[in-house]
Amino acid sequence: MKILITGGAGFIGSHVIRLFINKYPNYEIVNLDKLTYAGNLENLTDIENASNYKFVKGDIVDKDFVFDLFKQEQFDGVIHLAAESHVDRSISNPTEFIMTNIVGTVNLLNAAREEWKDNMENKIFYHVSTDEVYGSLGDEGFFLEDTPYDPRSPYSASKASSDHLVRAYHHTFKMPVKLSNCSNNYGANQFPEKLLPLMINNIKHSKALPVYGKGDNIRDWLWVNDHARAIDVIYHEGKIGETYNIGGHNEWKNIDLIHLLCNVMDKKLGRPKGESAKLITFVTDRAGHDMRYAIDATKIKNELDWEPSITFEQGLEKTVDWYLENESWLNNITSGDYKTYYVNQYEN
Ligand code: NAD
Ligand code: TYD
Prior knowledge:
By secondary structure, the protein is α/β, with parallel strands linked by helices. Helices cover 43% and strands 16% of the residues. Strand 1, helix 1 (11-23) and strand 2 form a beta-alpha-beta unit.
């Protein structure tokens, strides 16, 4: 079994690669990644010499490169995670998102079709997507697999578009696809422009904590290792043509989450209770900021017996410990001309 995992040097992809390398020593895993600002081979140093692992640097937008790679490697399956993934960046530069998330996905679909067209049996093209494609919820309700798409940021619109194309290739060309739409992930190795690692890093350095708007927006948080477990289960046991929503039933208002994190950090850093929360700074809201995301993960629980393995409190503690113990990982990213995305856009 030879599997292509795209975006494997990123946050979620690196956890998926590690899980597959360790759990399936008989599989050959090829990690295709462009190493954009978000790609970091340091995320994979523990498995980089594994005999069943190979890294290929390349751009999924480069059609000829992608076709050559598929011809050369003869993959049995694809787990596609490579993407531009940060909503704020999609607001300031949408085109990059259209190219990688839409054109890149179509290049992979076309290359898989070219190599698999005579025999699609036992092949899998798995697209990893986000709950943001469903739009924004009010106070009530949850996203289900059949919730109509209503993407509202350039990021979510590009992911919605790629989801539609993956399904269209299934219906039109019988491409053996699977999809999943997951809620916000947190954990080790997340690029420190996303909420939790950004706040952890800023608290550590006693820098302002930029809370967009009033901090009323709600996200449903899932530990990245549990997302990787879900991807494993869906890849192996999910039905062809099906979509699975993945989430932790773990909704937090941003401001409440940041207060919880500040309390955890005060304890870890030996600061007086309330010290870190003094850094909270309300700033200009994100344009078109979605109010609430919440996943109903009943289908994956009932059909594939998947549930989160740990509580949020456990996951948050593990995550904070990881960032505090892996100072050099953070320093290697945040040294040089690194500025948090907010500072770069609004305070420069
Ligand atoms: P990330 O930004 O940390 O990593 C993305 C990876 O893709 C990087 O290693 C980057 O170098 C690579 N990449 C980007 N453009 C590329 C290109 N043109 N060619 C090849 N490689 C390229 O993202 P992430 O948070 O790990 O998200 C991974 C996937 O999961 C994405 O598809 C995202 O939409 C989806 N997702 C993320 C979340 C979340 O909370 N982070 C939640 C649900 C779904
Ligand atoms: P983010 O981690 O960017 O994920 P997403 O936008 O994909 O949900 O942001 C999570 C929430 O935190 C979102 O409501 C925006 C908010 N946020 C802040 O308030 N301040 C920040 O500095 C960042 C990065 C996000």
